[in-house]
Design goal:
The chain has 373 residues and is α/β, with parallel strands linked by helices. The protein has 17 helices and 11 strands. The strands form 3 sheets. A 6-stranded parallel sheet has the order 1-11-10-9-8-7, covered by helices on one side. A 3-stranded mixed sheet has the order 2-6-5. Strand 9, helix 14 and strand 10 form a beta-alpha-beta unit. Helix 2 crosses helix 4 and helix 9 packs across helix 10.
Length: 373
């Protein structure tokens, strides 16, 4: 990485923050899929063995820094900030059995409880006891002990406390209840669904507070003045009326409890039916995740200058397409109306099967088609 290249990227992001960048930034990201391919370990080992959890992240992040070019900070980081990467931490908190597979992500079994018993179970959960007794907390303690005073490639290693956010009130409700059962509840028992979602929301806030308390020894002062965001990928399963009646009040409660600053949300899939409500009703001004199927230009104009997209590529094309198909996908994404300075950026997700030639083709297309006139 030359000094000129480092300066170019610094200037790009400084201009983006001021709304005067002359090309659309494109970054890439990955997770344990790629780290495990690089380090030669299985998903089960990664989720259950602290030494593997630490080693795979360090080796995987190093490989990523050395092989993937984009508009990310150049070179090796000043420090290796590692997370406890357990997607099912919230599910375990709510009592689900987590299944650790050898060659894929973990998943959780829904709770097999009737309506009344489910509400009573969640209401009675002791947040701090659930956090302290959970696998994520024990893994965090073990990885933190291994990393204490450690350096990797001359950079210090720091383990970030988990539990500071949520993968989504509706998404986790669907996993705890079972997606099919929750969808039936929305139609057949909306009163129960409303109670269940509101209870999940309150326990989510308490869970975040408990994680802060057990990892820092202090109470979390909420709401804070900074921005805050969350995911809720399963929103693509419901329509705007169900969202307005049952889920939006939960999101408003969550955002209001967490922060007085900028609100953001990550959504996967076809969730366009909620964009207007998220912006107009909840005040979400950053939407993360929308891919090529979204008319970004329309919403950028509809929502005005304080709104922006952190959009994403079509990851299936990036993984399985030809370089020519990747290039065409990027051309369709980078329309003149979408390329608003400071308001539109892109991210590509690199899986264990994504060819590096496709990553290079993606970035080259971003440099070509992402120029802002």
């Amino acid at each position: 990485m030359t000094a000129d290249r480092a300066r170019e990227l610094t200037d790009l992001w400084a201009a983006f923050s001021k709304g005067c960048n002359t090309r659309v930034p494109l970054t890439f990201a990955c997770d344990e899929q790629l780290w495990l391919r690089v380090s030669g370990h299985t998903f089960r080992e990664f989720y259950t063995r602290p030494e593997v959890h630490l080693k795979a992240q360090l080796e995987g992040k190093r490989w990523f820094c050395e092989h993937v070019e984009g508009d990310m900070p150049p070179g090796l980081p000043d420090e290796w900030a590692l997370a406890v990467q357990l997607w099912m931490e919230e599910d375990e908190f709510f009592g689900c059995e987590v299944i650790y597979q050898e060659d894929d992500y973990a998943w959780a079994r829904p709770l097999d409880l009737d309506n009344h018993s489910l509400l009573a179970w969640i209401a009675d959960l002791d947040p701090e006891a659930r956090v302290r007794g959970g696998h994520a907390f024990h893994l965090y303690e073990a990885v933190s002990e291994l990393a204490d005073g450690m350096e990797y490639l001359g950079r210090p290693v720091r383990v970030v406390p988990p539990g500071q956010g949520t993968h989504g009130v509706f998404t986790k409700a669907a996993e705890v209840r079972g997606l099919e059962r929750l969808c039936l509840d929305l139609v057949e028992s909306p009163g129960f669904a409303e109670q269940f979602l509101r209870l999940m929301t309150e326990k989510t806030i308490e869970r975040i507070r408990a994680w802060h308390r057990v990892t820092t020894g202090a109470e979390l002062q909420l709401p804070h003045a900074g921005g805050w965001g969350c995911c809720d990928d399963s929103l693509q399963m419901i329509g705007p009326h169900v969202y307005a009646d049952l889920v939006a009040p939960c999101h408003e409660r969550l955002y209001s409890a967490m922060s007085t600053g900028t609100r953001s949300m990550h959504l996967c899939g076809h969730a366009e039916q909620h964009y207007v409500a998220l912006h107009d009703r909840l005040g979400v001004t950053i939407l993360d995740g929308p891919g090529p199927f979204v008319d970004h230009a329309y919403y950028l104009e509809r929502f005005g200058p304080d709104f922006r997209f952190a959009a994403q590529t079509d990851h299936s094309i990036l993984e399985r397409g030809t370089p020519a198909q990747v290039r065409e996908m990027m051309r369709r994404l980078l329309t003149p109306g979408a390329k608003q300075p400071g308001r539109f950026s892109l991210l590509g997700y690199v899986t264990r099967h994504t060819p590096l030639e496709n990553v290079r083709a993606c970035y080259e297309a971003a440099l070509e088609f992402g120029r802002i006139q």
